[in-house]
Amino acid sequence: MEESATGTVTEPVPVAEDEEEEDKEEEEEEDDLAGRFLRLEREQSALLRALPPFGEPVSHIYHPLDYAWEPHCDFVRRYCRTPKRVLFLGMNPGPFGMAQTGVPFGEAWHVREWLRVVGGVKKPPSEHPKRPVLGLTCRRAERSKPAPHRAAPHPTRPVDGAL
Questions:
Q1: How far apart are CA 78 and CA 40, in angstroms?
Q2: What residue ranges are annotated as transmembrane (predicted)?
């Protein structure tokens, strides 16, 4: 309890986070590497959506950056904090990879358990009956999936023999 200048006693009122502080944090996030990367992805995604529609035999088009944006952002914010020299070879988003999780490689088990990515995944506007989007709960995997006990080492732990 606080005493005001007039001598009356007032109860502190719970206040939601200061909106100005929240806006400032969002601006700072937009200025960091991950924020700039996400902004570029949004721009590229908008350009892709502006393309003319595909004709037959294409019946369904998935845009995981629309319906799986939350886990995608979590992934980028976790692993795209500093510049890296990276070359992706043979990257295949596949129906049980990025189409499920919004993470550009790996199936849901690795994204959830190994990378520890979190976030909600919505349903796409048009979903193929044989390729439902289940998000991070998807139990299917691409054909090249190693057994969980043979999974790659945790990203924050050194590989055997590494310094």
A1: 17
A2: none
**Alpha carbon distance 100, 122 (integer Å):** 10
Instruction: Measure Cα distances from 24 to 29, 39, 80, 124 in Å.
Output: 9, 17, 21, 32
Looking at the domain assignment, is residue 130 inside a domain? yes
| pLDDT score of 12 | 44
Q: What is the DSSP string of 87-149?
A: ---S---IIIIIHHHS-SSS-HHIIIIIS------PPPSS--TTS---GGG-----TTPPPGG
User: How many C-beta atoms surround the C-beta of residue 4 within 10 A?
Assistant: 8
| Residues of the domain holding 94 | 63-143
pLDDT at residue 4 greater than cutoff 50: no
Nearest-10 crossing angle of helices 19-31, 33-49: 80
Domain count, the chain: 1
Give, in order, the Cα–Cα distances in Å from 90 to each of 21, 94, 142, 144, 157: 43, 11, 13, 12, 25
Model confidence at 109: pLDDT above 70 = yes
32, part of any domain: no
